Amino acid sequence: MKILLLVSAFNGLSQRVYAELRQRNYWVSVEYASTEQQMKEAVALFEPELVICPFLKQAIPRSIWQHYLCWIVHPGIKGDRGPSALDWAIYQQKHYWGVTLVEAAEEYDAGDIWGSQSFKLPKANKSTTYRHQITEAAVELILTALKQLEAKTYKPEPLDYTKHDVKGNWQPLMKQNQRSIDWQQDSTTEILAKLRAAESFPGVKDLINGKAYYLFNAHQEKILNKTRNASPGEIIAQKSQAICRATRDGAIWLTHLKQVSVVEPKIKLPAAEYLADHLQQVPELVDEGLPGFDPATWQDIHYEEDAQVGYLHFNFYNGAMSTGQCYRLLKAYREALERPTQVLVLMGGTDFWANGINLNTIEASPEPGLEAWENLKQINDLVEAILTTENKLTIAALKENAAAGGVMLALACDKVLIREGVILSPYYQHMGLYGSEYWSFNLPRRVGEQQASKLMANCLPLLATEAVKVGLADEVLPSQPKGFLRSLHKVCEWYSHKKTVRQLILRKQQLLRLNQQLKPLKQYREEEEAKMWQCFMAPESAFHQARKQFVYKLPVSAAPSYLAVHRQAALSQHNQQKSA
């Protein structure tokens, strides 16, 4: 079956749907819904049997949905309609929410229903819920509906508000005046609900020191303001470039801001980068030694231990690793190596495992090329430290998606365990980069030279099962978070047994010495960094435009050719064969 994905962006959900369909041998093409004309051209060229819209902000032209079956993933329960579905659910602190697969029709989200699934709504950011509960439910709905479509036994259900299970309704676009925080009146719970509902986009507009900013990535602080009794809204602490603001009954951490500007576009940055001039008198909290898990506060790095296994968590916003974060993570890694354990597990973060260097902090630097260079050297120091660890077995536990340098960071570990459903994007070319993080050593030694070249050139997302098949990962663990952690602990406990771990560490030491003799790690790094220097510094480098496109969310005119099969010569060949 030929399936066209029409998307506003090739986001995590779109990538997951794309990879799941390709794994099941559907012929899939992708097009960005930039304009009506773009969508019409894609349909005319590809002539799909089905159009799926995992993430679509625009309306599908009537000429498409009247002639082609079109499914739209709506992040809401049956009957819910409107562009701010998940925002309202989190804002109103609903206990349950859902996803509905709707057929495109004249009215917005009012077409026939091909399936709906509900879930318990967690106390989490909108982006976290979208990347977990929404994504899992959407994929299951699409795959189930495809089976029903192919069996030709299922009739979709018309939207009928008189039915008892249709509990949603039309909800308008949520505007900033509805999101705004009243620091004097709103409780911590209410403030968190507003901020979580606006996470990723659009953020909550607020004033700090007389300037307007959008606020992002809020976390509750349960200790700091208990005795201080600071004024609501006041910045009472800073830590790792995040700020802590008092509420009338507690406090919250905010890790990122974006300045409101009508003159020139602004980007999300760590809060301290925007507020540096106003934080000199604000107390700065610094972790002494290796920080353990503390549920009373926000942490971007923490460490846990269970018997002979250590677990190092690094929860960086959007998986992006700035120069400073790489430095702090390397420090924590070295301290974790001193612990009396046999196995060290790198856990990554809540929304992403890791995505490599931080393009936003690079773009914001007065010298982006030099900042990119410093960022690269720092992440390479981290990868090198992992590669040359000889006293422990290292494991990457990929419970979330990873991309580019984040994937290569995982490959530096001795073992890679991956949660079912996780997507890996092991390439750099889409960002105009040659790549580093010792990829030229780690990738071929895992998958072979030919497969390594293919992965880097194709720029296509890989499912967890595919990653194991080609050798990027060693084992797939269950998709449900609790099941994943249970399995992870069992596997790590097995690896930590003295005889097993001794053999594995000895083998690792022997292989490392052999590899160093064949070609020193230093040489791989120097070769990669020489090419990356050109990517960062050459005025004509594609990295500069690609970086700006990414950080400023600039519209993309069309999907790249490796996704847009309908624009490839192979399609015309197929059509010729079909008609012959």
TrEMBL record:
Domain Formyl transferase N-terminal per the UniProt entry, residue ranges: 34-145
Stretches that traverse the bilayer: none
Supply the InterPro entries for this chain.
ClpP/crotonase-like_dom_sf, Enoyl-CoA_hydra/iso, Formyl_trans_C, Formyl_transf_N, Formyl_transf_N_sf, Formyl_transferase-like_C_sf, HoxX-like, NiFe-hyd_mat_HypX/HoxX
Read off the CDD domains from this record: crotonase-like, FMT_C_HypX, FMT_core_HypX_N
Question: The Formyl transferase C-terminal domain covers which part of the protein?
Answer: 174-259
Gene3D superfamilies the UniProt entry points to: 2-enoyl-CoA Hydratase, Chain A, domain 1, 3.40.50.12230
Q: Where is the signal peptide?
A: none
Tell me a Gene Ontology molecular-function term this record carries. Answer: catalytic activity
Q: Spell out the protein name for this chain.
A: Hydrogenase maturation protein
Taxonomic lineage of the native organism: Bacteria, Pseudomonadati, Pseudomonadota, Gammaproteobacteria, Oceanospirillales
